[in-house]
């Protein structure tokens, strides 16, 4: 598995990332190019619609929040939530950083923020038969139906 700067990581390093070098922070306009790189790196849930810079700014500054998983100054994943709809709008991780807890931590940030904002039920959609679908099931999300575009709707209820 290649690291952020192309070096190969040992099996130990893959299982034990340096926690001190990571942080989760709130995205700014300056992060938009990195968000687009991460989003476009997805091998599943491939982008089929246009996500404009204005759409990202709206989520970032008006009615939502975007979190970045920052590792030694490089964004390796992000999550986005919309408080108007109690929706997880995005959760993406660079392929080299999948299965290392990045997505789980980013999802947790978004969910906790939506709970704080008063959400009672949080929802998201994802393509069927994907690793993302399995990930959300492992995190305790409940499949609640299929959207008109064929994506599966998942919900998480506050307990």
Question: What do you see in this structure?
Answer:
The protein is of the alpha+beta class and 159 residues long. The protein has a domain at 11-118: Gcn5-related N-acetyltransferase (GNAT) (Aminopeptidase). The chain has 5 helices and 7 strands. It has helices at 11-15, 32-40, 53-63, 102-116, 131-138; strands at 22-26, 64-71, 74-82, 87-93, 121-126, 142-146, 152-157. The strands form 2 sheets. Strands 1-2-3-4 form a 4-stranded antiparallel β-sheet, sandwiched between helices. Strands 5-7-6 form a 3-stranded antiparallel β-sheet, with helices on one face. Strand 6 (142-146) and strand 7 form a beta hairpin. The radius of gyration is 15 Å and the shape is globular.
SSE blueprint and pairings:
Layout: H1 11-15, E1 22-26, H2 32-40, H3 53-63, E2 64-71, E3 74-82, E4 87-93, H4 102-116, E5 121-126, H5 131-138, E6 142-146, E7 152-157
**Strand order within the widest beta sheet:** 1-2-3-4
Secondary-structure element order, as H and E?
A: HEHHEEEHEHEE
Shape: globular
Going by CATH, the architecture of the domain at 11-118 would be 3-Layer(aba) Sandwich
- Structural class, by secondary structure, is alpha+beta
Q: In percent, how helical is the residue content?
A: 25-40%
CATH class type of the domain at 11-118: Alpha Beta
Strand content: 25-35%
Low-confidence stretches: 1-14, 16-20
Number of helical regions: 5
Strand count, sense and closure of the main sheet?
4 strands, antiparallel
Mean pLDDT, all residues:
83
Radius of gyration: 15 Å
Query: Superfamily at the CATH H level of the domain at 11-118?
Result: Gcn5-related N-acetyltransferase (GNAT)
Which fold name is given in CATH as the topology of the domain at 11-118?
Aminopeptidase
The CA-CA distance between the termini, in Å, is 38 Å
